[in-house]
Specification:
Layout (H helix, E strand, L loop, with lengths): L2 H14 L8 E8 L2 H21 L3 E8 L3 H10 L5 E3 L1 H11 L1 E8 L10 E9 L14 E4 L5 H13 L11 H8 L2 E3 L3 H4 L24 H10 L5 E5 L2 H4 L7 E4 L5 E2 L8 E4 L2 E5 L5 H15 L30 E4 L6 H15 L15 H18 L4
Parallel strand pairs: 1-2, 6-7, 6-8
Antiparallel strand pairs: 3-12, 4-12, 4-13, 5-8, 5-9, 5-11, 9-10
Amino acid sequence: MPEEQKQKKRERERERQNGNGHMHVFQMRWCVISEKEYTKCLDFNKTAIVALASELSWEVQFSCVKGSSPDDCMGKIKSGSADLITLDGGEIQTAGKDHGLVPVVGEDYYDLPGLDGVSYKAVAVVKKSNQGITFTTLKGRKSCHTGAGKTAGWNVPVGTLLRLEIMRQDESCNAYSSAGTFFDESCVPNIKERYPNATDNLCSLCPSECSTTNGTYSGYSGAFKCMDNGLGDVAFIKHTTLSENNADASKYEYLCKDGSRKASWENCYLATVPAHAVVTKSGHDLYSKFKDLLLKASMDYGVGQTNYSMFQLFNSSKYGGSDLMFKDSTKKLVDVGNKNTYKKWLGSEYLEDLKVLSSCFTYSSASDQMKKPQLAVVMVSFIAIMTAVFPFE
């Protein structure tokens, strides 16, 4: 080892020691939401964390904390019983807005410099043989979603349908309620947990997954399987899902916002959306250590680690699942830099998309439903006119 590296290692070691001359011990608790993810987490600790901590001259007490859902994990991190979890864009907003959590590192899917690769495409996929379906004719169809409140599987497609006035927001101004009327049947995993008043048809295609995101038809691969198995007509997923499931791309087509269908997603996607990110509590005194260790893990156990028999950070197949702890399509983890709040990470465009889901609209046609406030103004005016014409005795 060159003398310069030895010196840096000695300096790091001195920095990690406390006043008694002993190595400083810190906790790192990862929240997981399935048994498969728990198994991978344990393997991460046993295989990678020990080696990484030794290399960094740290003593890490790593543990895997079981949570029932991403929201449950957010609460655990907020209360101090867990430290970290990877979340998607829609969940990151909830984490930041409701629980005070902030991004630590982001997933890069293209291995580009800086933060250029921390995004992906949200797409709508159908079987090529299932003709007659377009993005503009989805009303009354059967839909497969990655999960309630998920970015590519819910927020983007439903928000886009609402914004383009293909789907109409009902008087409740709640997108879950509107979607229940718009789609004939759906598989929206965890819908009852997110919105208990959701109509049963929103999870009638996967009734055992109404209150969980751990089922057969949950997540990107699950939503694709839901459509591919013939349960649904369309799957709302990410642009890499077909290749990650070794699907024959020639058998599928993508639905474009203009009503056309294309064989490739490159010019036919619904939106470019922010990548998943690992989050922790704002102001956590171990924030920098978490970041350093995760970036080091990405370097040592990421895509460059091609030995399947050893731990691979971005490969979940040996645990019988997909996208466990991290998306399997991740190329590396990156420092979030100045995008260190949920608003900065998500960006103004995606935050606007999220607003659409809970907004009431004034539609262009006079026969369309109006906003409640506008309706109230019309009723008051009507009563005033009637009173003038037919005064009360």
